[in-house]
Amino acid sequence: MILRLVSAALVAGFLASVVTTGLQLALTSPLILQAETFEGGHSHAQAPSPAIAPAALIVHAHAHAHGPSQDPAQGGAEKPDAWQPEPGLQRMAFTGLATLIGGVGYALLLAAVMLALGREPTPRSGLAVGIAGFLAVALAPAVGLPPELPGMGAAPLVLRQSWWIMTVAATGIGLYLIAVRRVPITILGGLVLIVAPHLAGAPQSIDTVSSQVPPASAAQFAARSLAIGFVFWALIGLAYGWAWGLFGREASDRAHA
């Protein structure tokens, strides 16, 4: 059972990450490279699309370096930025690796959710849970913290990560209460949970004028990131349901051999 679950999750995570990495390189990487030119030419490692992946791995809470930084403990002396992948093949490889790790992790999470709900994994049920994952992990947080390009103003990273985690948890529980429990009191409670983080408000940057990134590029990046995120989660659900059935048939064939 556990071996079948893990194997199906690995296959689903791999297939989803391959497709998603291709979409990232084709649709969002050019926008990131363009935005970096507005930051003064400093190189940035491409993080996974914020619509896909938390904190540095998952969301809209990734931080961007801005040239040499200063260490207060050394009287403000400059120190070099942390290591980052070089542009080109190295950056592409690290983008793919980060997406693969996120894909496998999310596939395991989807598998655990389906197991906890007692749902038999099929492509159809996997797609439904995958869409719920997209709503909770990508779309709901993006309402307050849309995917952002390098050079755009942002609130402190810790505040954004905390709000992201709160929003994902509240939305996930809210969707469970609405879609699974399905009684008036739980539906009402689920709606309250989904709305609550947005009523509290996402942390926003007080710097709203220094960014030189064109608004059209920022909007295009956010839209493309969310679209890629939807494809990512849908593929995880579909592929997990398919792989679960595949490994089940193989086990049955070996048992009857």
From TrEMBL:
Stretches for region Disordered: 66-85
The keyword Zinc-finger is assigned to this record: no
Superkingdom per UniProt: Bacteria
Keyword hit for ATP-binding: no
InterPro entries xref list: CbtA_put
Keywords of this entry: Membrane, Transmembrane, Transmembrane helix
Pfam family, one: CbtA
Signal peptide (UniProt feature, chain positions): none
Membrane spanning stretches: 93-118, 125-143, 163-180, 187-206, 226-247
Classification via NCBIfam families: CbtA
This protein's name: Cobalt transporter
